């Protein structure tokens, strides 16, 4: 009943920028937080950025100062603005919705940073 659809991934050069979008739909009555995770080949999935229902945000040290998470409540969409991209940012990026009883995941969008 709840779906998260990511978009905006692609191939960019080092130092470039990209904005990911996560559109939520379905029976979402209340949520605790939304976040962006990423997983590179052979590595564990890690939290990149999160935003609470109250609007406060947090970031992984590796992306702090370069990435910004934001939301549009009217559009039910969460964004991840990624600047100064590095090759090590290459991964599949996943959107996550945290509710009282369930966690929902999007299918992921590929981000590749390469020259």
Description:
There is one protein chain. With 115 residues, the chain is an all-beta fold. The chain has no helices and eleven strands. The strands form two sheets. Strands 2, 4, 5, 6, 9, 10 and 11 form a seven-stranded mixed beta sheet that branches. β5 and β6 (57-59) form a beta hairpin. The N and C termini lie far apart (40 Å). 26% of the residues are buried. The mean pLDDT is 94.
Put the structure in a nutshell.
The protein is mainly β and 115 residues long. 0% of the residues lie in helices and 53% in strands.
- The mean pLDDT is 94
Low confidence ranges: none
Number of strands: 11
For the largest beta-sheet, the strand count, sense and barrel status come to:
7 strands, mixed
Order of helices and strands: EEEEEEEEEEE
Kindly provide the radius of gyration, computed on alpha-carbon positions and rounded to a whole number of angstroms.
14 Å
Coarse structural class? mainly beta
Globally, the shape reads globular
Which percent bin holds the helix content?
Answer: under 10%
Percent strand: over 45%
Separation of termini?
40 Å
The number of helical segments is 0
Please give a handful of descriptors for the protein shown.
mainly beta, seven-stranded mixed sheet, four-stranded antiparallel sheet
Write the layout of secondary structure elements.
Blueprint: E1 3-7, E2 10-12, E3 18-25, E4 33-39, E5 46-52, E6 57-59, E7 67-72, E8 77-82, E9 91-98, E10 103-105, E11 109-113
């Amino acid at each position: 009943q709840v779906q998260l659809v990511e978009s905006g991934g692609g191939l960019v050069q080092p130092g470039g920028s990209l904005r990911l979008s996560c559109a939520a739909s379905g029976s979402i009555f209340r949520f605790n937080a939304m976040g962006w995770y990423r997983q590179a080949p052979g590595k564990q999935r890690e939290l990149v950025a999160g935003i609470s229902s109250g609007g406060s945000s947090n970031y992984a040290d590796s992306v702090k100062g370069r990435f910004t998470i934001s939301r549009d409540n009217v559009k039910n969409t969460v964004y991840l603005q990624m600047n100064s991209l590095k090759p090590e940012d290459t991964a599949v990026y996943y959107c996550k919705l945290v509710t009282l009883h369930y966690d929902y995941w999007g299918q992921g969008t590929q981000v590749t940073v390469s020259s």
